[in-house]
């Protein structure tokens, strides 16, 4: 229930659009080294080494990301080594994350593994975050 | 909380006449809400898509990748790739743009490639725009396709079975 007011606050900007945003799927066999940049949704089931900019990101159970993620909604079910900058973050029970999660709302399922810090940030922080911060805080 | 209290009482009143009430209140009531809660929270917040790990990759038109893509399965590209692509079957959509080398067993090009294609089987459709060399064994070029570069057949890498079959299959296409 705590997620509702935040979602309503943050959604109207691009809210309804987000539901029909173009979907990209990176399969289990795919390895990407570099930068992914999209206005839509990305589902990662393979391996990504590098940065990801997306509206919505789903890291599947088999997925592995090493690098930073900037998105509005992030759902993690796989392995992540790096930082997340997202308004809404969900760690599924299969998640294995080490790094930092900058969030406004976060959900961690029982069984999820997380090592690091989860700093809270106000929604304005994410709106100002057009591009990835280059410096590692 | 009110729900649990109600259940507590209901369980008690229902159970008390038949069974000894002393053991009841603690054991059956507490474990149920604990197991349900995390699931109830975890599911509505995320995006609603159920990720079923696919082996085929789709790069949508809104996605831009700067870097390398390597896959042991198929890739379908509708977006923009600035870098090399290697997969089994690569299909490049009409509005897709690739800057770099595309390698694979089979490459179907309907979009733009600025770089090089190396594949056993290459198909250039009528909307294809290819700037650079094509190294192939078997090539199909539809009318309307644009090529700025060399088409070079290379038979060295494959099995003899391909060598025997290729010239006949190629004959018509290669002549064009």
Q: Level of helix content of chain B?
A: 10-25%
- Number of DSSP E strands of chain B: 11
Oligomer: heterodimer
SSE string of chain A, helix = H, strand = E?
HHEEEEEEEEEEEH
Strand content of chain B: 35-45%
Gyration radius of chain B (Cα, Å) is 30 Å
| Unreliable segments of 5+ consecutive residues of chain A | 1-18
Element string of chain B (H = helix, E = strand): HHEEEEEEEEEEEH
Question: How many domain modules of chain B?
Answer: 2
Q: Count helical runs of chain A.
A: 3
Structural class of chain B: alpha/beta
Mean pLDDT of chain B: 73
- Spatial gap, N to C terminus of chain A: 31 Å
In angstroms, what separates the terminal alpha carbons of chain B? 79 Å
Mean pLDDT of chain A: 82
| Main sheet overview of chain A | 6 strands, parallel, barrel
Largest interface: A-B, 43 and 37 residues
> Helicity of chain A, in percent?
10-25%
How many individual domains of chain A? 1
Question: How would you concisely characterize the structure shown here?
Answer:
The complex is a heterodimer of chains A (137) and B (176). Chain A has 137 residues and is mainly β.
Description:
Chain A has a six-stranded parallel β-barrel. With 137 residues, chain A is mainly beta. Helix content of chain A is 13%, strand content 50%. Chain A has one domain (22-127). Chain B has three helices and eleven strands; from the N terminus they run ααβββββββββββα. Chain B folds into two domains: 2-42, no CATH class; 57-175, no CATH class. Chain B has 176 residues and is of the alpha/beta class. Residues 9-19, 29-51 and 158-176 of chain B have low confidence and may be disordered. Chain A binds chain B through residues 3, 21-43, 45-46, 50, 56, 58, 60-62, 73, 75, 77, 88, 90, 92-93, 105, 107, 109-110, and chain B through 38-39, 41-42, 44-47, 49, 51, 53-75, 79, 82-83, 87. β2 of chain A pairs antiparallel with β2 of chain B, so a sheet runs across the interface.
């Amino acid at each position: 229930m705590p997620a509702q007011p935040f979602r309503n606050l943050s959604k109207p900007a691009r809210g309804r659009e987000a539901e029909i945003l173009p979907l990209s799927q990176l399969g289990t066999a795919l390895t990407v080294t570099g930068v992914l940049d999209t206005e839509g949704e990305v589902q990662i089931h393979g391996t990504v080494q590098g940065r990801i900019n997306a509206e919505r990101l789903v890291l599947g159970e088999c997925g592995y990301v090493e690098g930073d993620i900037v998105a509005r909604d992030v759902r993690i079910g796989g392995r992540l080594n790096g930082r997340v900058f997202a308004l809404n973050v969900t760690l599924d029970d299969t998640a294995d994350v080490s790094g930092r999660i900058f969030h406004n709302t976060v959900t961690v399922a029982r069984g999820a593994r997380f090592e690091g810090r989860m700093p809270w940030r106000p929604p304005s922080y994410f709106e100002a975050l057009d591009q990835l911060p280059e410096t590692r805080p | 909380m009110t729900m649990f209290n109600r259940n507590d009482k209901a369980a008690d009143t229902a159970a008390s006449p038949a069974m000894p009430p002393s053991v009841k209140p603690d054991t059956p009531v507490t474990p149920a809400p604990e197991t349900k809660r995390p699931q109830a929270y975890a599911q509505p917040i995320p995006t609603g898509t159920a990720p079923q790990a696919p082996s085929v990759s789709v790069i949508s038109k809104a996605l831009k990748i700067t870097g390398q893509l390597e896959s042991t399965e198929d890739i379908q590209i509708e977006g923009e790739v600035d870098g090399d692509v290697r997969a089994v079957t690569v299909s490049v959509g009409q509005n897709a743009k690739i800057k770099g080398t595309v390698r694979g067993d089979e490459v179907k090009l309907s979009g733009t490639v600025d770089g090089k294609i190396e594949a056993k089987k290459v198909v250039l459709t009528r909307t294809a725009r290819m700037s650079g060399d094509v190294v192939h064994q078997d090539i199909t070029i539809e009318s309307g396709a644009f090529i700025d570069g060399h088409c070079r057949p290379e038979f060295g890498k494959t099995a003899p079975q391909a060598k025997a079959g290729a010239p006949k299959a190629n004959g018509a296409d290669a002549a064009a």
